[in-house]
């Protein structure tokens, strides 16, 4: 959702477009600044569709997301109203008790937490 995090994790910048993920909601993880997405029939989540990811980038994302998340295929809607196939990382059922009832806010994350988040995950970045 945040290009700076994507670049830090994958080591690359990818073309991207805004998209909406229907049937999912995004909440803040308890005690953390980052979110978890879960299925929610009446919800929809705004996001970014990254284009043309290579297998190395996907592997790095899998490692970064870790055991709390599962990569699942989804269909997203672009601003033009087109449907696109994508993958997203959904919070695993067995860890959902770690989510708050508070919706995650990208602007708050970027303004208050992004710098510290990138510092905390610097070791991951250095493994490239």
Structure description:
This protein is an alpha+beta fold and 128 residues long. The chain has one domain: Roll (Hypothetical upf0131 protein ytfp), CATH 3.10.490.10. It is built from 4 helices and 5 strands; from the N terminus they run αββαβββαα. Strands 1, 2, 3, 4 and 5 form a 5-stranded antiparallel sheet that branches. β3 (69-78) and β4 (83-91) form a beta hairpin. The two termini are 21 Å apart. The mean pLDDT is 92.
Q: Please state the average pLDDT score.
A: 92
Fraction of helical residues? 25-40%
CATH superfamily: Gamma-glutamyl cyclotransferase-like
Q: Which secondary-structure class do the elements indicate? A: alpha+beta
**What's the number of extended β-strand segments?**
5
Q: How are the SSEs ordered, and which strands pair?
A:
Elements: H1 3-10, E1 16-29, E2 35-50, H2 55-65, E3 69-78, E4 83-91, E5 99-103, H3 106-120, H4 122-126
Antiparallel strand pairs: 1-2, 1-3, 1-5, 3-4
Main attributes?
alpha+beta; 30% helix; 5-stranded antiparallel sheet; Hypothetical upf0131 protein ytfp; 42% strand; globular
Summarize the structure.
The chain has helices spanning about 5-10, 55-65, 105-120, 120-125; strands at about 15-30, 35-50, 70-80, 85-90, 100-105.
